[in-house]
Design goal:
Chain lengths: ~280, ~1050
């Protein structure tokens, strides 16, 4: 090798070194994809003035879905959507004949507006569809042959959820566990004798926490009053074997939570991001 | 010795003031360096411009340099071997010295004094002997040459790599090294943390870090196992470096034909493993292990172009005898099938007549390599090499042998034996590697400047297929095994299944009637297809170039700078046979989707993938700068810095993880009190960074979507009922009407996601690369020619570890550093290793060699390494160690690799009866204290053996393990180079049968760890309660086989060998 080759080689070595140095410049970690906890969120409905239609909140079943890649080989993590269906509504639908109106849906679905959280770490669901169900009155069943009681009547229910500004907070430490949204709810609950009922419309701010954990000291039976005492320690992410909790609640340990006396569920103590 | 005839020759007092010269780090990986200073015998002044020439049988041509103004010469890039040194200069008598033994990666100093022609010395004193202490480095470890492996019984048949006698199998002879499930553990680390380097090229499996090219020792000139203290030119490993130099051709034709055979018929008696309550027993014995091969090397054009080729064909067979054995019962008021605890403690079982069947596991491996060496001129050499190691096992009525562990599919460490039909348990396994490398060694300015450039390609393919050869892509074809779902049966409520519920072997059922005093329960049983299938292709493209520069200034410097770039790729097709595996509920009333690849694209819109195909990549770029500086020629300082950056990309082509800023400082000091290359004192500090294998990019950074549902049983007569064996039919059984989700999650009615959304696992933005630090210190002294004694101390500890974690009990996961960043609520990883080694090494010379070492070590912590020895889980950086906070209790203690005492003795001597007749003898003795054991229970989410009921290491240690091996040979020496040799190696001569694996499963029930608890004298544990409701643990739930053997030492085996060399 002559001197000229050596100089060339040294230049090459230096260039390679520079490339290695440059590599360090993309040292940031990739951003996570938009997602949401799967299962029930404990959601508090705060009325924006006016009536609250006697609804303080409820459990909302939520699932993040993904479209397939164009070649159908697997899911596309950059093309996802979010589904929402209140847990109580899902249970109620099972008690009625199905709503045959093809335009109605028991759940809301909307695509993520972006594949990654925005600068404020929130992921927004764009144009979530409305939930609308017209559930017919179910009359009481016949008496049993042995004289036992028949099935109870189920009142008619016309209900509509109009969602907007549905946003989930997403960081690696707290991925998709906090929800904030606006909701217009219109509900007409019939009576046990088949009466139509009176429509009620309310506008809420919705704040949800995942997973939904009960903070009732003991489970309420038949939803009955008087209310059992509350036990905020059930929300704790720390285990407490002395209270028969070998593991933590599953709520993110950084989250600031409280026990809601109406829902008897652990909920966020403030609007997301609700951190300690 | 006085030799008057040489009086006009030289007064050659060799030896001399040592450490006057640059101690060098090696020019290229695996190569040796010969250095020294030449002084005038009369005035002791350095002599410049002496022509220094070295020759060796292993060297193509000769290498020549001239000394500089300080009398220094340095010949780098020498292949290991025995060398002759010649010194010539006008006005001086020529000087020659032979028998200089250069080991791979070593720097040997050979000083000399030249006698002026004018000087009329009366006599010549030859006190010279070539020093054998590597005075250039502070690294610890061992060189293993063919002189060693051909004489000492190593690479026992039946172990990993034993069939073809692969190089990693012999690494265990290194002080501080131990075999683990996937290879050889070095200094308390796990085998996937090692860097396996073949002729300068990394041959680790790009996905799992284990060895990718298990090349046979037959083609290897020398293996240098560097256990610690290495310089910045070595990196990307937190374990050891296994640096292999393969054979090359030279100006003489050399080669050989060889064959080895280990017959199963001569195997020593094995202790049988019998376990109460486990009706299916599988006894493995050796069928045979054999290989046959040949190699040859020589010149194509003398002094210009040389070749070397080698070929080996190996076959391994294990016999698997399956039998059904009934267990004695002692009915209690609650349980008429309760096992008799006394019989259980004695491993007492009774063979059911007519239940035995014979099976076999077989593998075939071919090894081939070829190399061309081209000397363009004195200063430029090109090496082109190819290596291939295709292997295949299983299928066609045979069980497979795992290429990762070398064990047949009935391996007791990971399975419950042959607890199912052939089609459900057997696999055809493929595992092949192909490597090619091109190396250019260039030197100029009197070898003062060296450039070594290597480009290489490592390619591996692998596969786990159905026993009929059906692949992971065929899950929708019901006509092949890959198209049939596997069902795992595991009922506990209402009593375990009886063997005849599930197994078609015709037996007399009354033998299993508890009323007759015996029962035939099965805890787990598999039916249907072969379960998890895969097909892989892995590639590594790499290039590195190292510049070496010799410099004078306040002593001598050897400065090296290099760049090192590699691109790794892992393409894998994964599936579950029949698209899904099903599992019976413990209640025995339903079964659920246990494993599948699927995702939801809308409420209950399930997409079940016939297979999941991913392709992940990583790029690692780095460089280093180091100086080996002999300060004022008294002390050598090795200082340097290495930088690496690794970037991993997921299957969607997105960057999934960035690991830049891997700054590895290394600093060492070496002092030679003898000043003559015969002793050294050394100390070294080093930081090592892990190269993250791609399994993590595949499984975590790309996501592994899976959705599942439970299935209500039909009536007992329907095929899909879990009570009736047989694959669930895909019709009504799997229809929506038969689905049941324990707690439906609207908007889904039928499905729940088993592994989250299938997205790439989020990364802690503050994540740091995984690293460990090391301090080594010691001393070495040459007591007689070619023999050294030494002592070394090694301390290693972990800094950051990369793992996946969930802070909310498996609700969400992320990847970070436990104990740091987002994960400060996790314990910091700990793996503290302290070891002192005393050793004696005598390389093969004067017809004998010996090696002895004693290591006392201490390994404590909560992190074993890149695999989990307790469960054999091999998912580097995403093992279950830190997954959940509820898993973390009692995890700190003696780690599974903790061996307090280890003694290794090796010796060989050739007995030359006549010049033609030689007898060779070799012995090996190893003793090591047993490993710690624990008390494991089931974790409600993570399952069996994941809960540490008592602090790690609370169990009784396994007993000491001893091994004594003997090698005997007879060699007929036809002439200097031609010989015929017959050998017999006897492994485990005394057929020691110590238990080396015990059952650590205290219970299969979900229980809560007892913080800081201890076991009572009667084996009970105070305060042990069930996970779910805190109710007390009942003695009946205790595993009757707890603490009893799962495996014993491999028995005595003979290996016969025949070899001709020319």
């Amino acid at each position: 090798m002559d001197k000229r080759s050596l100089v060339l080689y040294l230049s090459g070595l230096a260039a390679a070194g520079a490339v290695v140095g440059l590599a360090a410049s993309c040292s940031d970690q990739p951003r996570m994809k938009c997602t949401a906890g799967h299962g029930a969120f404990a959601a508090v409905y705060t009325p924006k003035g006016g009536t609250d239609c006697d609804l303080h909140g409820e459990e909302i079943g939520i699932e993040a879905y993904n479209e397939s890649l164009p070649d159908k080989s697997t899911l596309d993590p950059n093309n996802g959507s979010l589904g929402m269906e209140p847990v109580a509504l899902a249970a109620r639908i099972d008690q009625h004949p199905p709503d045959m109106n093809g335009a109605h849906s028991a759940f809301s679905l909307g695509k993520w507006a972006g594949r990654e959280p925005g600068g404020d770490e929130f992921c927004t669901v764009s144009n979530p569809t409305n939930i609308e169900q017209n559930l017919e009155y179910v009359p009481p069943g016949q008496l049993q042959p042995d004289g036992g009681p028949g099935t109870e009547a189920v009142p008619a229910l016309n209900i509509k959820y109009e969602w907007s500004n549905v946003r989930f907070y997403n960081t690696p430490a707290a991925p998709g566990t906090q929800l904030i949204a606006d909701l217009i709810l219109t509900r007409t609950e019939g009576s046990l004798d088949g009466g139509a009922g009176t429509p009620c419309t309310a506008e809420y701010k919705v704040v949800g926490l995942w997973p939904s954990i009960s903070c009732a000291a003991s489970p309420l039976e038949d939803g009955g009053a008087p209310p059992d005492p509350l036990d905020y320690s059930k929300c704790s992410p720390e285990p407490d074997p002395s209270k028969n909790r070998p593991t933590g609640s599953g709520i993110g340990p950084d989250l600031l939570t409280r026990c809601d006396e109406n829902l008897r569920l652990c909920v966020l103590a403030k609007d997301p991001p609700s951190f300690k | 010795m006085l030799k008057k005839t040489f009086w006009h020759w030289v007064v050659c007092a060799i030896a001399a003031a040592l450490l006057l010269t640059p101690k060098a780090a090696l020019a290229q990986q695996g190569a040796a360096v010969l250095t020294g200073t030449i002084v005038d015998a009369a005035n002791k002044q350095p002599v410049a411009d002496v022509v220094v020439t070295v020759t060796s049988p292993g060297l193509q041509g000769e290498q020549m340099v001239v000394t500089d103004s300080s009398g220094l010469y340095r010949i780098p890039a020498l292949p290991p071997g025995v060398y002759t040194l010649r010194l010539e200069k006008e006005q001086y008598r020529p000087f020659s010295r032979d028998g200089i033994n250069l080991r791979a990666d070593s720097t040997i100093r050979q000083d000399a004094q030249l006698l002026p022609e004018a000087l009329k010395a009366e006599e010549v004193t030859v006190v010279a002997r070539p020093p054998s202490v590597d005075i250039g480095s502070s690294s610890t470890g061992q060189n293993i040459s063919q002189e060693f492996t051909r004489r000492i019984p190593v690479a026992a048949p039946g172990g990993k790599g034993g069939g073809s006698r692969s190089f990693e199998a012999v690494a265990e002879s290194t002080p501080g090294a131990n075999s683990d499930t996937y290879g050889t553990s070095i200094n308390g680390t796990t085998s996937p943390e090692n860097q396996y380097v073949l002729d300068g090229m990394s041959v680790n499996n790009p996905a799992f870090g284990v060895i990718g090219t298990p090349l046979s020792m037959e083609f290897i000139k020398e293996v240098n196992i560097i256990s610690g203290g290495y310089m910045p030119e070595y990196g990307r490993a937190t374990g050891g470096m296994l640096n292999v130099v393969t054979k090359s051709g030279s100006n003489e034709f050399h080669g050989g034909v060889f064959g080895y055979y280990s017959p199963g018929a001569l195997e020593g008696k094995r202790s049988l493993v019998r376990r109460a309550g486990q009706t299916v027993a599988t006894d493995t014995t050796l069928g045979y292990i054999g290989d046959i091969g040949a190699d040859i090397g020589g010149p194509i054009v003398k002094d210009k172009l040389w070749f070397y080729v080698g070929l080996d064909f190996a076959k391994t067979r294990f016999n698997l005898k399956r039998s059904l054995n009934r267990s004695k019962v002692l009915p209690t008021a609650d349980d008429p099938r309760a096992l008799d605890p006394v019989a259980a403690a004695n491993g007492e079982q009774v063979l059911i007549p007519g239940s035995e069947s014979d099976w076999a596991a077989e593998s075939t491996q071919i090894q081939a390599m070829g190399k061309l060496t081209f000397a363009i001129n004195q200063d430029n050499q090109l090496h082109l090499a190819v290596y291939a190691t295709p292997s295949q096992s299983g299928g066609d009525g045979k069980y497979g042998i795992s290429p990762l562990t070398g064990q047949p599919e009935a391996d007791p460490r990971t399975t419950a034996g042959l607890n199912g039909p052939y089609g459900a348990l057997a696999h055809k396994r493929l595992g092949s590697s192909f490597d090619t490398s091109l190396k250019w060694d260039s030197a100029f300015d009197n070898k003062r400047v060296l450039i070594n450039t290597t480009v290489g390609w490592h390619h591996e393919t692998g596969g786990i297929l159905g026993a009929d050869g059906s692949g992971p892509e065929e899950t929708l074809n019901p006509g092949v095994l890959a198209g049939q779902s596997r069902v795992a049966w595991r009922r506990t409520a209402g009593g375990l299944h009886e063997i005849y519920d599930l197994d078609p072997t015709p037996i007399d059922r009354s033998l299993c009637d508890p009323a007759n005093g015996y029962d035939c329960p099965v805890t787990t049983y598999n039916t249907g297809g072969p379960g998890a299938l895969s097909r892989q292709a892995l590639d590594r493209y790499q290039g590195r170039s190292i510049l070496t520069y010799l410099l004078q200034g306040a002593g001598h410097h050897v400065i090296k700078a290099g760049v090192d770039v590699e691109y790794n790729q892992y393409e894998v097709t994964k599936s579950h046979s029949g698209t899904a595996q099903y599992r019976e509920s413990t209640a025995g009333t339903s079964f659920s989707d246990y494993r599948n690849y699927s995702y939801l694209s809308g409420p209950d819109q399930i997409n079940i993938l016939p297979f999941l195909k991913t392709k992940t990549k990583s790029i690692t770029a780095g460089g280093f700068l180091q100086d080996s500086w002999s300060v004022m020629d008294k002390v050598t300082l090795n200082v340097g810095l290495r930088y690496d950056a690794q970037f991993l990309y997921n299957t969607f082509g997105e960057r999934g993880l960035s690991l830049p800023n891997q700054w590895s400082p290394r600093a060492g000091v070496i002092y030679d009190p003898t000043q003559s290359g015969r002793a050294k004192l050394f100390a070294n500090f080093a930081r090592f960074y892990e190269s993250v294998p791609l399994d993590m990019a595949d499984r975590a950074l790309s996501g592994e979507a899976s959705a599942g549902t439970s299935h209500q049983p039909f009536s007992p007569t329907r095929n899909c009922s879990p009570i009736v064996p047989g694959a669930p039919d895909a019709g009504p059984c799997l229809g929506d009407a038969n689905r049941r989700v324990a707690s439906p999650t609207p908007p889904n009615k039928y499905y729940t996601l088993l592994s989250g959304d299938g997205h790439p696992t989020p990364i802690d933005p503050n994540i740091k690369p995984q690293s460990s630090d090391e301090i080594v210190a010691g001393g070495e002294y040459e007591i007689v020619r070619d023999a050294r004694v030494g002592v070394s101390y090694t301390k290693r500890w972990m800094n950051y570890v990369i793992e996946d974690m969930s802070r909310d009990e498996a609700a969400t996961y992320f990847i970070g550093n436990p104990g740091y960043g987002t994960s400060t609520d996790f314990p910091k990883p700990r793996r503290d290793y302290d070891a002192v080694t005393l050793y004696f090494t005598k390389v093969f010379a004067e017809d004998w060699l010996a090696q002895a070492s004693y290591t006392a070590s201490y390994l404590r912590g909560n992190y074993a390494g890149l695999f989990r020895p307790e469960t054999q889980q091999l998912d580097p950086n995403i093992n279950s160690d830190f997954d959940l906070r509820s898993l973390l209790t009692n995890r700190d203690g003696p780690l599974p690799g903790d061996r307090t005492h280890q003694v290794k003795l090796y010796g060989a001597k050739d007995w030359i009866l006549t010049p033609e007749h030689h007898v060779t003898t070799g012995v090996s003795f190893r003793g090591k204290s047993g490993t710690p054991t624990g008390y494991f229970g089931s974790h409600p989410q993570y399952g069996l053996d994941e809960a540490f009921i008592l602090p790690r290491g609370s169990g009784e240690r396994n007993p000491w393990e001893f091994g004594a091996d003997l090698a005997l040979g007879y060699r007929f020496q036809i002439d200097k180079d031609k010989s015929v040799q017959a050998t017999v190696d006897i492994f485990n001569l005394f057929n020691f049968q110590a238990m080396n694996l015990s059952d650590q499963r205290y219970t299969a029930s979900d229980v809560r760890p007892v913080v800081g608890g201890v076991a009572n004298a009667d084996g009970t544990i105070t305060g042990l309660v069930h996970s779910d409701d805190g109710s007390p643990f009942t003695p009946a739930e205790r595993n009757p086989n707890f603490g009893r053997p799962l495996a014993y030492q491999a028995p005595r085996v003979f290996r016969f060998g025949l070899r001709t060399t020319f």
